[in-house]
Write a structure and sequence with these properties.
There is one protein chain. By secondary structure, the protein is of the alpha+beta class. It is built from nine helices and 13 strands. The protein is elongated.
Length: 320
């Protein structure tokens, strides 16, 4: 929890965020993901200063348990002084003990955001889904909270001006915006009307721009002129030498979910995300990430191709 200190911006955790989205689709399945088509509505987690602190926190916790479809999960909420925003004890259940930072006694409108993150820890614990290392596991939790419909609360808790700042979660504001936009593209939901923080809306717009770029990368037909030109150059090299671009692919671990072949620097602007591979028994093929779930898709290099992602079922128009 950034509280008065500097807030990190940009997209430094983007590869882990994308791996988290892929892991959610693999663990939950397409059908389960689509059970979360509706986000937590603001009215269900509203908390005003006249509400009883403990009863109000319990009410919000119950709404989030219901949203996540957690069976037999009773949340006991308490407050104490601590460094972090909140903490949850993960046990077999059915009761879970959540501690919130004492500052939420007077910042009650952000209680829903803190509880959304902590109760997602319970959800992922029951799924037995985790990443290696505290940092990556917290990024998974933030990503899952956002993609499954409660993370707009975390972004709305971001406020920053010349005198003070506040941000909850491990993702940057722009990364929260990115995941919210990815969710919006799948479910057709616009979360921008729910923001009470002007800075949150700005971060969402920046994240949405980055999310839209995922669907404009070659070999997708929506790619821009510059990307198509570079793709054609790399394809000629691959056809001439039987291998991909000179920079070559990196082998990137995806936190216990297997391994992913990614172009070097694929999360940045300088290196393309696609990789060519020659096949002695068939045509040259190109692999690239699905713009929805980021699982790698492999198609033959033979012009216009329609591909369907086997994980998220997105139909992709490609010009290979």
């Amino acid at each position: 929890m950034a509280n008065g200190g500097p807030v990190e911006h940009g997209f430094p955790h983007l590869e882990t965020v994308r791996a988290a989205v892929t892991a959610l689709y693999r663990r939950l399945s397409y059908d389960t993901i689509h059970q979360f088509a509706a986000s937590v509505p603001p009215v269900d987690v509203a908390f005003c200063d006249t509400d009883d602190l403990y009863l109000g926190a319990q009410r919000v916790a119950r709404e989030l348990v219901r949203h996540y479809r957690l069976p037999d999960a009773r949340m006991i909420v308490a407050f104490r002084e601590m460094e972090h925003a909140a903490n949850v004890e993960l046990a077999a259940g059915p009761e879970y003990f959540v501690e919130l930072n004492d500052r939420f006694r007077t910042h009650r409108r952000d209680i829903g955001a803190a509880l959304a993150h902590e109760i997602m820890h319970v959800y992922l614990h029951r799924l037995d889904l985790s990443f290696r290392g505290t940092r990556d596991n917290e990024i998974l939790t933030d990503t899952a909270t956002t993609y499954l419909g409660a993370g707009w609360l975390l972004l709305d808790a971001y406020r920053e001006d010349g005198a003070s700042s506040q941000k909850l979660g491990y993702l940057t504001p722009e990364e929260f915006g990115y995941v919210l936009a990815k969710r919006s593209l799948v479910f057709g939901e616009d979360p921008s009307a729910w923001f009470t923080s002007a800075q949150a809306y700005t971060a969402y717009v920046r994240g949405r721009e980055r999310a839209l770029c995922d669907g404009r990368q070659p070999p997708l037909t929506a790619a821009g002129w510059a990307g198509r030109r570079r793709y054609a150059h790399d394809r000629r090299r691959a056809q001439g030498h039987g291998r991909g671009p000179a920079h070559g692919p990196d082998h990137v671990p995806d936190h216990g979910q297997g391994s992913v072949r990614r172009a070097s620097g694929g999360s940045g602007a300088s290196d393309p995300p696609y990789v060519f591979a020659s096949d002695p028994q068939g045509p040259l093929r190109v692999t690239f990430p699905c713009p929805t779930c980021h699982q790698r898709i492999r198609v033959p290099v033979k012009g216009r191709v329609r591909a369907r992602c086997g994980l998220c079922r997105t139909v992709l128009e490609c010009d290979t």
